[in-house]
Write a structure and sequence with these properties.
By secondary structure, this protein is mainly alpha-helical. It has four helices and no strands.
Length: 124
Amino acid sequence: MRDPDLRLDELLQRGRRKAETLKLLNVKVPSSMLERIDRLATLLPATKSEIVVALLNEGLVTAEKQLQGWRPPPKPSIPKERRCIVKGCERERVAKGLCATHYQAQRRAVMAGKPSPIPENGAH
Ligand SMILES: [Zn+2]
């Protein structure tokens, strides 16, 4: 298997190949899928690696097209009464009025014998 851009239609026509370093991708797939890959490999004929690479290329091109311009939805904002007491911090409280980041920062400072980086009554 030498062509990283291999597509299914090329497997049907068996065009040119270019040299490419192959790396092992250890992925668990359902056994029914393996049987279908085996069947395709026998039918075309091609190696199982060629079938997998061709199918991945087809899927990646489709996914890239579908995801063009897509942005993840914005994170829901935490209600004020559940926000960290540190000014400007929008994260959710987990302990002593602080978010995980600020709680850990305070714990580390206290354990190191340093003054707390967060004011005692650090309200909004
Ligand atoms: Zn915080």
